[in-house]
Amino acid sequence: MQDLLEKIYRDNDQLAFRQLFLQYSERLIVFAASLLPSREEAEEAVSDVFVKIWQNRASLPAVRNLNTYLYTAVRNTAYNYRTSAGRMPEILTGEHIQVAVNAMAASPEDMLISKENLRKIESAINLLPARCKLIFRLVKEDGLKYREVAEILEVSINTVNTQMAIALKKLGEVIDIRQHFGWME
């Protein structure tokens, strides 16, 4: 990733910039959609962030953690959109946060789980409270560290730990209950 950033700020490499955009844009749009009322606004916010990154690419060497930098930039842009539209920059209505479990299935064991079971797990995740679901998605789907999520959402790392524990407990209950009653195939 550092090589990509160096190509962008040293060589003004537009292909490297495009690669960075393609690598991050979709998950940043999903994140922005958790803060804005529509996917269109989320896409616009993420586009604005990447335009600013290109315009200010000379400052990229100062970025210590690209994940935190990008998510924080999207969060701030989303807050600015909400504020300029006369809406409070509150976080998480939850209606736009969707988790795709199949994105987490990376190991051969995970691939053995049937599509029906994946659908059930995905439904259970989508029933989590909004903040809990967002934190779970950022950690498990986007692969961010607890510390990064805490910094991006401006919460303590203990909040992230607590929300992950709640998410895993609720998912465990759903899965165990289904196994107990023979609901899982």
Automatic annotation (TrEMBL):
The keyword Secreted does not apply. GO terms for biological process: DNA-templated transcription initiation. Pfam families: Sigma70_r2 (PF04542), Sigma70_r4_2 (PF08281). Residues 20-87 form the RNA polymerase sigma-70 region domain. Residues 119-171 form the RNA polymerase sigma factor 70 region 4 type domain. Keywords: Sigma factor, Transcription, Transcription regulation. One of its GO terms (molecular function) is DNA binding. The keyword Transcription regulation applies. Belongs to the sigma-70 factor family. ECF subfamily. This is RNA polymerase sigma-70 factor.
